[in-house]
Amino acid sequence: MHVLVVHNRYASAQPSGENKVVDQEVALLRGAGHRVEVFERRSDDIAARSLPGKVAVPLLVPWNPAVRAELAARLRAERPDVVHVHNVFPLLSPAVLAACADAGVPAVATLHNYTQVCPPGTLQRDGRPCTECVGSAAALPAVRHGCYRNSRLATVPLAVSLSVNRRRWWSGVERFLCISAAQREVLVRAGMPAERLAVKHNFVPEPGVRRAAGGEHLLYLGRLAEAKGVRLLMTAWDEVAAGGGVGVPLVIAGTGPLEREVTAWAAGRDDVRYVGLYDQAECRQAIARSVAVVAPSTWLEAFGLVVVEAMAAGVPTVAAGHGAFVELVEDGVTGLLHRPGESASLASRIRRIAAEPDRNREMGQAARRRYEQGFSPAVGLERLLEEYRTAIAGRSALTRAGDTRASRGDGDSR
């Protein structure tokens, strides 16, 4: 199969689960003998633009005509079987869908978050769930609240793009790949076409290292942001420490807007280590040495890659009991779920998962089995190709129907 992957890469200074998923899927397909090429832009490149170029970036968010022309020309020249769209913000824009239509190539889109119904894609505001823009044609509440980067001005391009491109997305994509059933349910309720929304979980490559003993630390691995539950974790860990601790330290790995706050909180403590941003090899080693991985997100995670990475290494998870975590973590079997947003509940689950080593080991083994059954590369490849074939067949059927109408004189002559 010949696949063209379309992706706007996130800034390299901060960890990106989406970048990782895209790279892993490209490698998976190529490793299976498929021809895969990439059409991409990089957010890192914005810094090198001239001042007028930087000022123009928000104007390109809803629509980038140059991208449409460039991609359409490439599609006509190379004729891939399918285009797989990931992130289009901020430099690509939904113009990529018009390019696919121009060239007559079917498009598949992975939905990594909720940007189809929420301008910042989080369904969260001020640390709490928010659905004000869901079903809203203009997404004005997001602008009013400044939901993207706490800025009304920065939110405007996203809100405009959502409003003017809604129908283009819904009609221009053959298959939307939701990364969890929880995400699909939200999007169907928001009015997206259910018949085009399929669930395809992200896969995780074999880590090459698994937990061999009981673990030597609790691990938080991810972006240091409010929505990821970092402040909640700090509060819960203080409660754990006040009760005597759990015998192992908390390791926090990552970077983000709360980095200074985390650094100050961890300074001078024996029970906390802030280690900054790990590379992939360091991440795998840190996970494999964990008593458990902690994922306390306060927003409704559409997937939760770190949870599955822990499963692959035979490590249980303590995760918030909402969003995709509920379908990824079987409470008491492959990990523990805490009540979302409640530090006391999180502290209780941390104590429990560290205090029962035999049960912890059993949960880790069950987590590994769950990975093998649902999130391995073999499973990921099968599901991905299945959705590509469905998209190609759908576009072929639509083309045949159009040809039939034209031959009968039923086509629109305008």
UniProtKB/TrEMBL annotation:
Coiled-coil segments on the chain, per record: none
Q: Does the keyword Transferase apply?
A: yes
Give the UniProt keywords, A-Z.
Glycosyltransferase, Transferase
Name any Gene Ontology BP term: carbohydrate derivative biosynthetic process
- The keyword Transferase is annotated on this UniProt entry: yes
Q: InterPro entries recorded for this chain?
A: Glyco_trans_1, Glyco_trans_4-like_N, Glycosyltransferase_grp1
Molecular-function GO terms, alphabetical: glycosyltransferase activity
Q: Where is the Glycosyl transferase family domain?
A: 216-370
- Positions of the Glycosyltransferase subfamily 4-like N-terminal domain: 18-204
What's this protein's name? Answer: Glycosyltransferase involved in cell wall biosynthesis
Organism (species): Streptomyces echinatus
Q: What is the lineage of its organism?
A: Bacteria, Bacillati, Actinomycetota, Actinomycetes, Kitasatosporales
